[in-house]
Amino acid sequence: MIDRRTFAFGTAGLGLSLAAPAVAQGAYPTRPVRMVVGFAAGGPTDIVARQLAQYMAEHLGQSIVIENRGGANSNIAAQEIATSAPDGYNLFYNTSAIAISPALYPRLNYDVKSFVPIGLTATVPMVLEVHPQMPVNNVKEFMDYVKANADKLSYASTGNGSITHLGSALLLGRIGAKVTHVPYRGSAPALVDLAGGRVHFMTDTINSSLPFIRDGRLKPLAVTSAKRLDALPNIPTLTELGLQDLEIGAWQGIVGPAGTPRDVVQKVNGAMMKALQNPEFLSRLADQQTTPLGSTPEAYGQYILAELARWDKVVKDNGITMG
């Protein structure tokens, strides 16, 4: 678990950043704003970030330029923003990796105190899926089968330390089984091997998996969202099956460098919230199986800290290391 003193200090740090007096010079923004994405252009996160930036720009009165800094599970992008000027012109469109990386990479050059939270934007629900020939048709049968055959099974992920890796590890911890993990470089190769029977199951984002499920190449057993998904209305949630605290999603949000003025934070948050109420944007998110969220900066700060504690425990309980 995260040391309680560190956790408490992190909370205070976020609070101090938000409570800082407004020191922005003149009207904001007076020039284009840079928003860094920690993944390659054209990927699911990048697509949402670019669409959100378009609608936010309408309310800010300036364009938001997306800059892709892929690599190291978005740590390169995080470091870029952590050391950027806290003037509101440098933003980080982060993912759940911001709460996972500190446990995986002990030598990071930044931590939670390097950022000021701006807002939670969206989440992509995940689905527990198996190869169609795996002799299970519901989660109870899956759990019993995994417990009895753990040494013969393997599960796929989109990479070591990814949310798809840790999501399955969290579920396996509940089952009490150790299963061989097979990491891939992204969803596409992992899903192809799962559909081909070279691995047995996976917890993946719904937007990547849905085409395989609709074609009958994969069998969904449960979704990890708070409620059932419109795309899979007959598939139950893990929560309704009695598996509490297993709500998992590939969530996204916006942070800035620590010290960004409070009035700027509030203005960016306001533009974000207005964008998340735009019917056209909401329709585009729905097409990508992405659930809009939205939050205050304070609520997002508390959410990040809770996720830090959660995934720190999963990483340590499973002995996952990245160096």
User: Whole-number radius of gyration?
Assistant: 20 Å
Specify the biggest β-sheet: 10 strands, mixed
| Secondary structure category | alpha/beta
CA distance, first residue to last residue: 18 Å
Structure summarized in a few sentences:
With 323 residues, the protein is α/β, with parallel strands linked by helices. The chain has 11 helices and 10 strands.
Keywords:
alpha/beta; 19% strand; 323 residues; 11 helices; 10-stranded mixed sheet; disordered N terminus
SSE inventory with pairings:
Layout: H1 4-19, E1 33-37, H2 44-60, E2 64-68, H3 75-82, E3 90-95, H4 97-104, E4 115-130, H5 139-149, E5 154-157, H6 163-175, E6 180-183, H7 187-195, E7 201-205, H8 206-214, E8 219-223, E9 249-257, H9 262-275, H10 279-287, E10 291-292, H11 297-317
Helix pairs in contact: 1-11, 2-9, 4-11, 6-11
Q: What does this entry look like structurally?
A:
The protein is an alpha/beta fold and 323 residues long. The chain is built from eleven helices and ten strands. The chain has helices at residues 4-19, 44-60, 75-82, 97-104, 139-149, 163-175, 187-195, 206-214, 262-275, 279-287, 297-317; strands spanning 33-37, 64-68, 90-95, 115-130, 154-157, 180-183, 201-205, 219-223, 249-257, 291-292. Strands 1, 2, 3, 4, 5, 6, 7, 8, 9 and 10 form a ten-stranded mixed β-sheet that branches. Helix 2 packs across helix 9, helix 4 (97-104) runs parallel beside helix 11 and helix 6 packs across helix 11. Residues 1-24 have low confidence and may be disordered.
